[in-house]
Amino acid sequence: MTEQEGVIKFQLSYQQAELTAAADISELTAWRTLCVQLGMLGQHPLRYDNYGFGNISQRLPGTDQFLISGTQTGGKAVLTAADYALVSHCQPELNQIAATGPCKPSSEAMTHGQLYLLDPGINFVIHAHCPAIWHLANELQLPQTAAEIPYGTVEMAAEVARLFSATTVTRQGIFTMAGHEDGVVTFGNTAAAAFQVLAEYYAKALALGAEPNLWPG
After folding, report:
1. Would the pTM count as exceeding 0.85?
2. What is the pLDDT of residue 32?
3. Residue 87: beta bridge partners?
């Protein structure tokens, strides 16, 4: 693997604190657990040098703030309130994120934040790792970020903005990260909508002959 997972590349202003009463993690945790069971988030000794992979987030209603799974939490089968961060400000053009919570936000928080800023109709984002979809991105006619763009950076945020202006990503609700091994991002106005896109394209990839997300143990 060319990149180590979980490395925060943005400027982070972080204050450790308990999540606010408005931060309901129940739905977020339920969908993350499902993605873990499908091998699209988590941690596995045979994948990515045993680093955690994937993350998930949810907008706080009526704001640009969002809850996101914390960095270095991939090894946990089920997350608790101690494993999330609340991103209160995201400024991709300045490479800055402000967050509070029991732990620091995922290293992909900049990409999530950019999506929420680009479209107020997006309320849920899943960054999964699905080799089946990623390797067949061209055949599935999926928007892709440029291969030279690293994850979690200002450049990635700008690349996501380019996809929104130059491709059909808004309609499809999915794109792949060509420079981030197996990286697939889906989004929607609900958790179910974001997950449905992921499931549909996974099924399409399997129908084209891709190997399923099955690893021993």
Report:
1. yes
2. 97
3. 66, 99
